[in-house]
Automatic annotation (TrEMBL):
<protein>
    <submittedName>
        <fullName>DUF6300 family protein</fullName>
    </submittedName>
</protein>
<dbReference type="Pfam" id="PF19817">
    <property type="entry name" value="DUF6300"/>
</dbReference>
<dbReference type="InterPro" id="IPR046267">
    <property type="entry name" value="DUF6300"/>
</dbReference>
Length: 114
């Protein structure tokens, strides 16, 4: 994955679905998989970076530190941001759902709590 293929946002992030706190960053990136017929399907995945939930992950820590900098993310930091986002996405990109959490979130959605 190249940095150019990643669409990342800070200003318009949804709340974290795990803890409901504000997210630090969302990133949308290309993803492909094989369908039941064996053909490749091209699509997109989205990952959300949460300072509370992801703060202990090795690839998230430097990214969260940079995003939390008092100086903000200016031109000098942008050169560091791309590789940090790419490393973080490589670590989280192959996550599979935690079925218990997914069922609980679906129940919350059906109950109108989301």
């Amino acid at each position: 994955m190249t940095t150019e293929a990643v669409d990342w946002r800070r200003a318009t992030t949804p709340p974290c679905p795990r803890c409901a706190r504000p997210a630090a960053l969302t990133a949308r990136y290309p993803h492909r998989w094989r369908n039941a017929a064996g053909a490749w399907v091209e699509g997109w995945r989205e990952a959300l970076l949460c300072g509370h939930c992801d703060g202990q992950e090795a690839t998230a820590r430097p990214l969260l530190t940079l995003l939390a900098s008092e100086q903000g993310v200016g031109a000098p930091e942008l050169t560091r941001l791309g590789p940090l986002v790419t490393a973080w996405l490589a670590a989280v990109g192959d996550r599979t759902p935690e079925w218990g959490r997914l069922a609980a979130e679906a129940a919350r959605w059906r109950a109108g709590d989301l």
